[in-house]
Amino acid sequence: MQIRPFFDPATYTLTYLVWDPNTKDAVVIDPVLDYEPLASQTSTTSVDALGDAIDELGLHLRWVLETHAHADHLSGSRVLAQRFGVGVAIGAAITEVQETFKQVFDLDDDFATDGSQFDRLLDDGEVFEAGSISIRVITTPGHTPACVTYQIEDAIFTGDALFMDDYGTGRCDFPRGSATALYESVHDKLYALPDETRVFVGHDYQPDGRPLAWETTIAKSKANNPQLRADTSKESFVKLREARDAKLSSPKLLFQSVQVNVDAGRIPKPHANEIRYLRLPLNLFKPSDDLGRPKD
Fold first, then answer.
1. Residue 78 has pLDDT above 80, yes or no
2. Which one in 47, 175, 273, 290 has a CA-CA gap of 20 to 30 Å to 91?
3. Which residue range or ranges hold the Metallo-beta-lactamase domain (predicted)?
């Protein structure tokens, strides 16, 4: 198995191209659609570079995999799906996220919350084949209720559940997130894997300015992770995670990203004036009166 990371510095996101060198079968995990928030403009520079690499390597893309509905970048999954004629898969609990954000964004009645926007919904423990690549699904909720980790041979792709061993874990303060659930996902599930299991993370925030990194191991995570080691108690982690989350700002692209990603990477359809619109709730976290003054 070969793995090539693609890093998006604007969102600190790591996308992975994974392939079998013998058959050339491949999957992509968590692709990025570029978005400039000031101009509210999308572009496909990142996902086009990924697609070009697939062509240059002579690979046969079989599936695009999402670890969850991201809150920090728009998904480029549909661009790849259209270019290569493949499907997009995500954890089956995406329906919970869709139900939550359909209400937040006041989406149209015909917006489905059954996950049907995706081509395949994946359950815990499921093993499915992408050509010659065998992929095991491990549900790892906590950051969101729909997060999954993908295991391919000796490697796992953890999305926002587990980061580099010098950084920590994903935040748990999004709707239906849970620090308790994340502890159980990482400590009880991922840390039960063999120590030599390679861990490929969904983001790298380069703490203290260190060089970009994307790969660690279960052993290193259990020994070194500053938030969640093998000997960290559930109570200690939950207290630390919730206190840390309470001080964090919302992701800059939270509403833009989730709105697109719960619809499997589709941007909103144009209105009658041929302009597309994103819906951005105002003062969602701190409600105001009609003049914008915070309510008591």
1. yes
2. 47
3. 12-203
Distance CA 70, CA 144 (A): 9
DSSP assignment of 181-209, as one string? HHHIIIIIIGGGS-TT-EEE-SB---GGG
Q: Does residue 49 fall inside a structural domain?
A: yes
β-partners of residue 172 are: none
List the structure tokens of 251: 């992701």
Q: Strands 60-65 and 25-29, how do they pair?
A: parallel
Task: For residue range 147-162, list pLDDT tens digits in order.
Answer: 999 999 999 999 999 9
Q: Give 240-248 contacts, CB < 8 A, sequence gap 24+.
A: 241/169, 241/171, 241/172, 241/179, 241/182, 241/183, 242/172, 242/173, 242/179, 244/171, 245/171, 245/172, 245/173, 245/179, 246/173, 248/171, 248/173
Helical packing angle, 77-84 and 45-56, nearest 10°: 40
Q: Of 258, 63, 233, 31, give the one whose Cα is nearest residue 144.
A: 258
Alpha carbon 226 to its chain's center: 22
Round to whole Å and give the CA distance between 136 and 128. 7
Q: What is the DSSP letter of 294?
A: B
Query: For the domain that residue 97 is a member of, what is the CATH number?
Result: 3.60.15.10
Question: What confidence score (pLDDT) does residue 296 get?
Answer: 77
Please tell me the distance from the alpha carbon of residue 203 to that of residue 68, in angstroms, as a whole number.
13
Domain residue limits at 239? 2-261
- Cα separation, 141 vs 94, whole angstroms: 11
Residue from 12, 8, 2, 6 nearest 160 by CA: 12
